[in-house]
TrEMBL record, chain A:
It comes from the Bacteria. Residues 86-115, 155-184 form the 4Fe-4S ferredoxin-type domain. This is (Fe-S)-binding protein. PANTHER family: FUMARATE REDUCTASE IRON-SULFUR SUBUNIT (PTHR43551), HETERODISULFIDE REDUCTASE (PTHR43551:SF1). It comes from Desulfomonile tiedjei.
From TrEMBL, chain B:
InterPro entries: RsbRD_N_dom. Residues 11-146 form the RsbT co-antagonist protein RsbRD N-terminal domain. This is RsbRD N-terminal domain-containing protein. It comes from the Bacteria. It comes from Desulfomonile tiedjei. It holds the Pfam family RsbRD_N.
Amino acid sequence: MELHNLSKPQDLMNIDLNKTPETPWMDTPVNFRDGTYIYPAAGKNLKRLGLPNPREWSPTDEDWKLPDNWKEIIMKGLKERLDKYRSFRLFMDICVRCGACMDKCHFFIGSGDPKNMPVLRAELLRSVYRNDFTTLGKMLGRFAGARELTVDVLKEWFYYFFQCTECRRCSVFCPYGIDTAEVTMIGRELLNLVGLNINWVMEPVANCYRFGNHLGIPPHGVKDMWEFMVDDIENITGINVNLPINKKGAEILFVTPSGDYFADPGTYTCMGYLMLFHEIGLDYTWSTYASEGGNFGLFTSHEMIKRLNAKIYAEAKRLGVKWILGGECGHMWRVIHQYMETMNGPADFLEAPVSPITGTKFENAKQSKMVHIMEFTADLIKHGKLKLDPSRNRKVRATYHDSCNPARAAGLLEEPRYVIQNVCEDFFEMPENTIREQTFCCGGGAGLGNDENLEMRMRGAFPRANALRHVQDKHDVNRLLCMCAIDRATLTALTHYWAPDVSVGGIHELVANALVMDGEQERTEDLRGEPLNEEEEE
Amino acid sequence: MLKDLLEKQRDAVVDRWKQLLVGTYPPETQRFLKTQKNPFANPLGNSIDEGLEGLYDNLLKDGDIEKFSEFLDRVVRIRAVQGYAPSTAVGFVFLLKEAVQEILGQAIRENRLYEELLTFEQKIDSLALLSFNIYMQCRETIFEIRTHEIRNRTSRLVERACQKYGMPQEWADTEETKA
């Protein structure tokens, strides 16, 4: 090539300050680039669940092997859902495209891709709704923002509905209260009808359906992992903690996400539960049947949520407990708090939860009969029932990431902060517009937290990371706390890329570090097996 | 002197540089990047602002490599995961040449400052090399995280299995491999 044939940098970079896109958004097809899409569900997993169109395929293939009547199936499914969910029909009708949500999505902020604006993400589906279900759309077509459902549109749905973490940050800002997460949920339900789903969701779902937990670990395997933790705890504290499993007649059934059994740093949080329950002498039990609090049915369909969640009440009934306690989990809490009683209830065989240690009645859980551990532990601390030595966490300079589901969906805002401030001396909040109801997602919820999608996750993680780096620079923060198993996994990748000197962990890990246990040996190590004091490290 | 011109027209040159960089994003996004000033609501726009301003100021006062790397990192780290070709991800550095030409071209010609311009542009070239280092480091980190995630997913399970049932023959040390 001769030199004059090589473009100038600005031409190579395709810069155009006054450009309009070459094609309108409705006609701009999706480009599936490695690192930004998720591998499709393996046929075997769909077969195990009895879901339609099991096959092997790839989003990069031209032919997605859809059923011949795919369009009919989607349209029928859309009609059914419009009739069934008034909220959905409302969300399809009332958006005035004011743009309040436009710049609130972490994926838009981090990627700059306009189709990640919540309004446009919903418009992907809304345009088809207008075309086939509204008079104006039928008459005016494009002019009324309507478009026909084609294979390209379906591909666009697959790409963008699996680029939404259902975190609901956009809904906080919508003057009409449109919940784009619910639009995504319906979008995914429709995709599922023709066999368009992702393996990171369907494999845990299939495993959960058969074994009760995401990894498909059989009961003796789960028991083994808990025993492993009991050994570790004994090494650190000198105490052999109680490990009740499938204990009939226990007062409380404890259910937590299985992610915390197998992968660090979740395992330390799980050890924290074991230590806390032992110390307060709680009459409780673990279950190898309800061995998973997480519910990837939430990322699949309403039917699947119900199907997977049924085990929790069933196990509570089988074991004859009085009420249920849930571990540090994010999306599990949305299911428990907002769907469980309606879907799997009534739980009239259980009692309204009362803390056996403090006597506190958890009025808020009267209906579902299930309490979040953060409410439980905050109550213990408030009543002075725990002997705590926060100086054992003195190496930790913490900030707290509000996990989307417990914070935004369920309002658990004060309890975690109260617990953290009682077990850790140095706590710093991230900026106001990035926490509590306005918290930024980790970028990996709702089934997106897989390794093949890492580049997209890092885009989505950027707003959270930016706020984290701010407190890292300003206050030397070195620990990002969260109360969600997905967060504990995905934030670890986030900090690795964006804020390398910050570690991630759960809150009960710090509770257990600080917890002064009856008869314990002098603690020299924290739950991670690291020295408690800087001096000992040298 | 070129330096005086660059100092005097700092805001105009940096603004033009930012405009050119923002021009690599879709039009709907450009508006957002320019107008939302809250650094936590618009971390991308903020990184671009702080990154380019920091680079420019350090070019004028001959800052050290650490400073340059720090400001380059602000911009490169995010562009490395935004789906751009490597050239587009790091090529924003060269856009400073374009911005200087546009804003100061006439003054440079009138005052015959070509030699100084050449020296200045050489520094820009070095910045581009530096940004390529950062870009590669970012991409390598991405792959490192991927392998780390896959390993960590079941690490405890494998550890426990080895502890309980013994390590598979193939993994265990033999007499020859023992340290």
